[in-house]
Amino acid sequence: MALILYQRDDCHLCDQALAVLAQARLPEFESVFIDGDAALEARYGVRVPVLRGAAGQELEWPFDAVAVAAWLDAAG
């Protein structure tokens, strides 16, 4: 499953999300910084961090390792 974590520079919530993803032992994911991208800022703005799966499903902050695992199981 291709995973993307949308985040911002200097975002303490994004730092917390990265720690949760490490705790959840998430498989590889891509980090995409929305700063400076008008389309991504319009879509994600203050919602970051957001984890997005290959099928377009999204997990919005706040989440913990248990929620990440459940989300991954549901996504297949």
Automatic annotation (TrEMBL):
Q: Which SUPFAM superfamilies match?
A: Thioredoxin-like
Superkingdom as given in the UniProt entry: Bacteria
Q: Spell out the InterPro entries in the cross-references.
A: Glutaredoxin-like, Thioredoxin-like_sf
- What name is this protein filed under? Glutaredoxin family protein
Q: What is the lineage of its organism?
A: Bacteria, Pseudomonadati, Pseudomonadota, Gammaproteobacteria, Lysobacterales
